[in-house]
Design a protein that fits this description.
- This protein is of the alpha/beta class.
- It has a domain of about 190 residues.
- It is about 35% helix and about 15% strand.
- Strands 1-2-11-12 form a four-stranded mixed β-sheet.
- Helix 5 packs across helix 9 and helix 11 packs antiparallel against helix 12.
- The longest helix has 16 residues.
- The structure holds zinc ion.
- Zinc ion binds next to helix 8.
Length: about 325
């Protein structure tokens, strides 16, 4: 049987059902649930999508301001975290399957990032810092003259979430590490040679009704965890460029607490199920939408912006329910 490592394990449906039932008025109340309480919500994926999988592929995306040339990006001058803040703070609904950005370089496939992957990436990173022998290993190739323009290539080894499975090794390319004009374009071109079920889950082919979808790259938790390792590596050398130009939303401890409750204290009443109680755990789409609902009500700063003075270091986040 495939089992998750203890750090990543969530309560099963049967375990959750044994907790004390609490009724909630809105999704935000999930944050108030105690360790031994649970609630029941309705499925969150909007009608019209036949499955959560279809929703994660074809649902609406949040789009931080896009540039179509390096000059445009330079004229604006803002860095990714500011563009995300603007876009996240503008949403007036929460049925989103992620956010996306468009590269300017050779590989123009849209990069799509779901909040669930951002959370799981932060969880893998915290695991690698809190459990001995699981460190993320980062080997940069950043000496070439082209690094200013093309970004660094960095070979990363990231621990797996599954028991008895070794680290997965891959190369991130176009990593911004030089404080240059080109860093704006470099960060948008981020890519990798990594492949895993979380990436393939969303593979999407050409749809004639979508001008942007001549292929799409889904960023996964392993790549985000690796990037957090890269931020730390360069931070240690007093180089803040990887952090400054990070295209991935880094969660606050508060949204981590909310996410943990989604996995351990919430069941979904789904009338389409064959089982007698019609209950299941929240699926990927439910979790993604619930996370966006918190972005909508609390704003970017409290949810997907990690503030050291308030949250401490992402490496030290608490990933268990108190
Ligand atoms: Zn992956």
């Amino acid at each position: 049987m495939i089992r998750k490592k203890l750090f990543f394990r969530e309560d099963t449906k049967a375990q959750i059902k044994k907790k004390d039932y609490v009724e909630i008025a809105m999704l935000a109340d999930i944050l108030e649930l105690g360790k031994d309480e649970f609630t029941i919500i309705s499925p969150l994926v909007p009608r019209g999508f036949e499955s959560t999988r279809k929703f994660m592929k074809h649902g609406q995306e949040v789009k931080p301001k896009r540039y179509y040339s390096l000059d445009q990006a330079l004229n604006d001058g803002r860095v990714p975290v500011q563009l995300r803040e603007e876009a996240f703070d503008m949403i007036q609904e929460h049925d989103f399957c992620g956010y996306s950005f468009l590269p300017l370089g050779r590989d123009r496939r849209k990069r799509k990032v779901s909040l669930v992957e951002c959370l799981e990436g932060a969880r893998i990173y915290a695991y690698s810092k809190q459990v001995r022998g699981t460190e993320i290993i980062v080997r940069p190739y950043d000496r070439s003259k082209r690094v200013r323009i093309d970004g660094a290539e960095i070979v990363c080894s990231v621990p797996s979430r599954t028991e008895k499975q070794g680290k997965t090794k891959f190369k991130l390319v176009s990593v911004p590490v030089v404080d240059s004009r080109e860093k704006h374009a470099v960060s948008l071109d981020i890519g990798s040679d990594h492949s895993c079920p979380s990436k393939r889950f969303n593979i999407r082919y050409k749809y004639t009704d979508d001008k942007e979808s001549s292929g799409i790259i889904n960023v996964c938790c392993h790549e985000i965890a690796a990037y957090l390792g890269i931020i730390e590596h360069y931070w240690g050398k007093k180089n803040i460029v990887p952090l400054q130009m990070c295209q991935f939303a880094i969660p606050s401890q508060k949204i981590v607490d909310f996410y943990l409750r989604l996995g351990n204290n919430v069941l979904v009443k789904d009338l389409s199920l064959g089982s007698e109680d019609k209950l299941r755990k929240p699926d990927r789409g439910d979790k993604e939408i619930a996370l966006w609902s918190q972005v909508e009500s609390l704003g970017y700063d409290k949810t997907f912006y990690s503030k050291r003075s308030r949250d401490g270091d992402v490496a030290d986040y608490i990933w268990s329910l108190e």
